[in-house]
Amino acid sequence: MGAFVAKSHYKQNFLQADSAFLQDNSYLCKANMYPQSYMFMVRKIVLFCLLGLIVFASCKEKKEEKAAQVYKTMKVERSSRTVSTQYSATMSGKEIVEIRPQVSGFITKILTDEGENVRKGQTLFIIDQVPYQAALGTAEAALKAAKAAEATAQLNYDSKKQLRDEDVISDFELNTARQALLSAEAQVAQAEAQVTNARNSLSYTVVKSPLSGVAGMIPYHVGALVSSNIAEPLISVCDDSEMWVYFSLSEREVTDLTLQYGSLEAFMQQMPDVTLLLAGGKEYGEKGRVDAVSGIVEASTGAVSLRAVFPNPQHLLRSGGTATVVVSAVKEGVIVIPQTATFELQNKVFVYRVVDGKTKQTEIAVEPLDDGKTYIVESGLEEGDIIIAEGAGLLRQGTVVNEE
Asked: Does pLDDT of 255 surpass 80?
């Protein structure tokens, strides 16, 4: 329509100018100062010039229309939003103990099975006891002999003491008897220690579980020779009444959360319960809670490990398994924008607001935890602002925008 009006306007001006030109210069033609053909040529030149102006104006309007392209925009509003972030995790039992023998010998009995629930103090293995029973018997016999020698030394000392009181023997003989008694007493103490050691060695042939839990695999069979330095443990027992689930946040996320809550302790206290997705994607029925944050950043990954504790009453979770931790938070009255509406520059997040039909670059602050699709805006935008919703990274400051 604009082009049509411009064309009509230029055409009308042309006709008026042409008519005036002819009227003003008609006397020239009548006076035969210029030929009629020359006047016709001048009219054609003027006509072509005016047509060129019309075409130029039309192209300029089309160029301006093309410059003001249509972009998808959105109006900033406040709403309630549940933000969920997923993290890969590994599971570990509350306690895991590798049970190894403390003495050498052949396994004579295996009293548990792989994967069986065991109780604290339950006997799991018996190692050949015969040599240790013999060693205990020898130690006990040596103790008896030492005690007999001690009794003899005591009698000798008592006799010498009486004789010295009667001034029959010298002090040297009495002191010699006293030293013999002390030596006999030391022999008794040594023999008693040997008995204790032999008794302990015999007790170590009965391998018991130090905690209640579930038994792992058994790499040995009856008749296998084992010792305290074997490569693989006899068995591993895991207390899986509670499962410790480890996942990681980036150093930046942990720093931002610490600054947001004031301290790591406040962060752990105020952080909402977390959810666990099992390997098949099914949600675990019990909620967990973050109770520990590592004080060390992994140099290779730049990540910080966190530990969440989940109850495991049905023993569904297995130590060593993998899962996904879902951290969810409900935010009331917040500004939520799609990540497609943002772009990053030097670790800062920006959006383009539409002001007077043109883009205006605006820095915003967002919460450190996000769901990978949206951001919760902490500052930089106000309710009612119009922003570019998609393709913000392709625009420039001052781009003319027609809102979609």
From this structure: yes
